[in-house]
Design goal:
The protein is α+β, with helices and mostly antiparallel strands. The protein has one domain. Helices cover about 20% and strands about 40% of the residues. It contains 1 helix and 7 strands; from the N terminus they run E-E-E-E-E-H-E-E. Strands 1, 2, 3, 4, 5, 6 and 7 form a 7-stranded antiparallel β-sheet that branches. It starts with 12 loop residues before the first strand and ends in a 13-residue tail after the last strand.
């Protein structure tokens, strides 16, 4: 059974953070948006939740959705992925994010170890 691709469409904004990407040549305003989780991802035996994430203001957009078995897992994975994406942008641009006039993006470090 072929499953459809996971939507990257933004839902109602759940949370938003205003950042500045600081490089040697510029200070670029960037908005991080995390949308409300929605249960619309068809799986083989159920419907999973997705939580959309987007960075607005970068040279290219890369919206994506984190997927979980429930809304809490989808939001947790969205925060985890947003931090990873922010750090990837910092490496790629050789810059850093600033938030509240301090270095850093302020995104939490989340341990997603799953135990049975």
């Amino acid at each position: 059974m072929d499953l459809p691709s996971i939507s990257k469409e933004m839902t109602q904004v759940l949370m938003e953070r205003q950042l500045i990407l600081v490089t040697d040549s510029e200070r670029r305003p960037v908005t991080l948006r995390i949308g409300m989780p929605v249960q619309d991802v068809k799986t083989v035996d159920d419907v999973a939740w997705r939580c959309p994430v987007e960075f607005v203001g970068l040279t290219r957009t890369h919206p994506f959705s984190a997927v979980g078995v429930d809304a809490l897992q989808a939001v947790t994975l969205a925060l985890f992925a947003a931090r990873a994406q922010a750090e990837a942008w910092e490496r790629e641009t050789r810059g850093h994010f600033s938030w509240l006039d301090e270095p850093g993006h302020g995104l939490p470090s989340i341990d997603i170890t799953i135990t049975a």
